[in-house]
Amino acid sequence: MSNELIKNLFGDNTDIVNAFSKIDAIKFKYNEKAHSIAPNGENGIDADVHIGVKAQDLAKNPVTASTVIEDENGFLAVDTGELTLANSAVLSEICKRIEVIENILGVKTNG
């Protein structure tokens, strides 16, 4: 649930851009170990190439640690719902920073 009326707000999280700047984007395929744990495409495990991040990178930073869960096999996994919320927060902060830079440079964009 995302309504501010049911949350205790702690202020803006401007550290989130810095946290995400330390996370590498990766391209990967699941290995045989993954296929043996979750056969037949279970949990999204297939033979396709994927783009994503490593749960270990997210878990290292307190700002992004809430986006990681431990699955039933003891492996770290990305909670995509939490990551989507974190991604939205990053985009919001980046947009604010771009607006400040545009104002400093005197650049106007449509929107």
Describe the protein.
The protein has 111 residues and is α+β, with helices and mostly antiparallel strands. The protein has 4 helices and 4 strands, in the order αβαβαββα. The model has no long low-confidence stretch (mean pLDDT 89). The longest helix is centred in the last third of the chain and has 26 residues, at 80-105. β3 (68-70) and β4 form a beta hairpin. It has a two-stranded antiparallel ribbon. A two-stranded antiparallel ribbon has the order 3-4.
Gist?
By secondary structure, the protein is of the alpha+beta class.
Question: How many E-type strands?
Answer: 4
N- to C-terminal distance: 29 Å
The tally of helices reads 4
Helix-strand topology string: HEHEHEEH
Strand content: 5-15%
Helix content: 40-55%
Structural class: alpha+beta
The shape is extended
State Rg: 18 Å
The unreliable regions are none
Largest sheet: 2 strands, antiparallel
If strands are numbered along the chain, what order do they take across the biggest sheet?
A: 1-2
Mean pLDDT: 89
Strand-helix topology:
Layout: H1 15-21, E1 26-28, H2 32-37, E2 50-52, H3 55-60, E3 68-70, E4 76-78, H4 80-105
Antiparallel strand pairs: 1-2, 3-4
